[in-house]
Write a structure and sequence with these properties.
single chain; mainly beta; Immunoglobulin-like; 4 domains; 5-stranded antiparallel β-sheet; 2 helices
């Protein structure tokens, strides 16, 4: 009995030894891996045309400072000496490739590295889907929470041939976070709705030709407070956009219509009826048949002269865009005396 137990113990020990032997080479291999002693830092890594580029060499030990380093540009030696670990040059025009070769002669061995720089650029254009009047010459600015579209326009060359944007890959980032759903081959356009709690939307795109990054684009889109601007509204011509009502307006005729025009409000919310107008005349609520569409008509009754303060506030009731709110006011001078009241009606 005791002899049998001893044999079993020996068999178990032998199996354990075999198992350890199987793992030992892998452990030894992991412990003897040697890191690359040379690191190259290129700034910027995707330069544009006629841009200064700097290449720095970093080493894990002190051998870089004691090594002979030779730099060549387009086949000609331009810099050589002990410890010459940095080189700067200026790229050429689009379609011109600059080749930089560095040779390191050290006691740890010789190291060679070749860089090919083809200037590229990525321009990002953005468009906000926000409200502006017809024929308005300015840009529709972005207000918090509104829809945005960002388009990448890359200028990338391989040799002297320009690369089609459709064969490049676009990796989009928003606020420093990748957006895989918007990224991929030929995905030049990024559409999204902004965050109403942010003061800007920061967008970046890394452009790749295969696995090689060939360009970077970045844009910071500031948040603009929406506005409501007052214009006189003519029954036949509609709003008179030539001049906004800022300080005041004289009521020459017996009646006047005022148009409250929203600037930089979300267009989908505007079209969906989420914008709410609130009119007040001398602090009292004012209304009329077209007041909810941003048009209020005032009529003077009686005689005398005086003035009244007309104000309007405009609120976006969409929960994702609730911060979009604005107000405005204008003084209306009327009559030949004082204290004349106003009645409201629709033309």
């Amino acid at each position: 009995m005791e002899y049998g137990l001893t044999i079993n113990h020996m068999r178990q020990l032998r199996n354990i030894a075999i198992t350890l032997g199987l793992f030992a080479p892998a452990i030894l291999f992991a412990q003897t891996a040697v890191p690359d002693p040379v690191r190259y830092v290129v700034s910027p890594d995707t330069p544009g045309a006629n841009q200064v580029v700097t290449i720095d060499i970093e080493g894990t030990g002190s051998f870089i400072g004691e090594s002979k380093i030779t730099w060549s540009q387009d086949g000609s030696v331009v810099k050589s000496g002990v410890g010459e670990r940095q080189y700067s040059f200026t790229t050429g025009a689009f379609g011109k490739t600059t080749t930089i070769r560095v040779t390191i002669e050290s006691t740890a061995g010789n190291f060679n590295k070749t860089f090919n720089f083809s200037p590229s650029t990525v321009t990002l254009l953005w468009e906000a889907d926000t409200s502006i009047p017809p024929l308005y010459r300015g840009k529709a600015l972005y207000s918090a929470g509104s829809p945005l579209t960002v388009v990448a326009l890359p200028t990338v060359y391989q040799g002297t041939s320009r690369v089609s944007p459709n064969v490049l890959s676009y990796q989009w980032q928003r606020g420093g976070e990748p957006v895989p759903a918007a990224s991929g081959l030929g995905r030049t356009t990024f559409r999204f709705s902004g965050d109403q709690l942010k003061t800007s939307e920061d967008i970046q795109v890394d452009v790749y030709a295969g696995t090689v990054k060939v360009g970077v684009g970045y844009v910071s889109i500031p948040t603009t407070e929406p506005l409501v601007i007052l214009y006189q509204h003519d029954a036949l011509r509609g709003p008179i956009y030539d001049q906004a009502l800022t300080n005041g307006i004289s009521l020459i005729d017996s009646e006047i219509s005022i148009k409250a025009e929203p600037f930089y409000y979300s267009n989908p919310s505007k079209k969906g009826g989420a914008l709410s107008y609130a009119w007040r005349l001398d602090g009292a609520e004012a209304t009329g048949p077209d007041a909810a569409q941003g048009i209020l008509t005032l009529r003077q009754t009686g005689t005398g002269e005086g003035e009244s303060l007309l104000s309007v506030s405009l609120q976006n009731n969409n929960p994702a865009e609730f911060v979009q709110a604005a107000e405005n006011a204008v003084r209306i001078l009327f009559g030949q005396g004082s204290g004349s009241p106003f009645n409201l009606f629709n033309l």
